[in-house]
Amino acid sequence: SLEGRERKARKVLAILEEAAGDLSGKSLLDIGCSAGIMTRCFSRSFAQVVGTDIDLHALQHALSPDADGSVAWAAADSQQLPFCDASFDVVTCTHIYEHVPDASRLMDEIYRVLSPGGVCFFSAGNRLSYMEPHYRLPLLSVVPKFVAHRYLRLLGRGNHYYETHLTYWGLRRLVRRFALEDYTLRVVADPKRYFADDMVKPGSLKQRVVVFMLRLAMWVCPTYLWVLKKPALAD
């Protein structure tokens, strides 16, 4: 929903403002912007915003007549971005990695277009999740791919399972070029600060249980909220 996407954008901005400081003079690249709802929310906080997606139909909605012109839009493959090195201060990549054929190339491109000292907000789903987030089917991302294809066909939900999720350890390897700051536990421990109290009620039993579990075993968390920083003296 529109309200849900806008609230998600506020969560991302709250994390970025804490991790990167004042955003008002910075440039942002929003990878996988789809119809641009979150991108336009981001544009209220940044000096320059570019939204990219490979889905032309979604971009048509982003370019709809009601758009205020505050964002530049580009049809682009995230594995081969049409931007110069060190073009952006901040990149947002929210639940994109599992959709691209080569997630390593995606991360290489994010690293390349970020300016030295720049940051990327990276939210990522865990392969080891009970409920797969796209099809809402139990254990779909956990079973081997050939089983997942048959699972979808058996239920009449598709012929091929294209998403490729990684485990916590696989995700850590994927982003190894960056300095990683993990906001996952922080957001759960203080949801009001990060506009996440719609998901985790402060002071609730659910909050206490989730905080305990994450401190005990972060690898079971279904979604990670990471800020990735490119070194100031990058290679």
Helix content: 25-40%
Question: Strand count, sense and closure of the main sheet?
Answer: 7 strands, mixed
Q: SSE order in H/E notation?
A: HEHEHEEHEHHEHHE
Could you tell me the strand content as a percent range?
A: 15-25%
The poorly predicted ranges are none
Strand order of the largest sheet: 3-2-1-4-5-7-6
The helix-and-strand class reads alpha/beta
Give the end-to-end Cα distance, rounded to a whole number of Å. Answer: 41 Å
Q: What is the CA-atom radius of gyration, in angstroms?
A: 18 Å
Number of helices: 8
Quick one: overall form? globular
Number of E strands: 7
Summed over residues and divided by their number, the pLDDT gives a mean of 94
Short structural description:
It contains 8 helices and 7 strands; from the N terminus they run αβαβαββαβααβααβ. It is α/β, with parallel strands linked by helices.
Structural summary, described in words:
The radius of gyration is 18 Å and the shape is globular. With 235 residues, the chain is of the alpha/beta class. Strands 3-2-1-4-5-7-6 form a 7-stranded mixed sheet. The chain has helices at 2-20, 37-43, 56-62, 103-113, 145-154, 168-174, 184-189, 205-216, and strands at 27-31, 48-53, 72-75, 88-94, 114-125, 179-182, 223-229. The chain is built from 8 helices and 7 strands. Helix 1 packs across helix 2 (37-43).
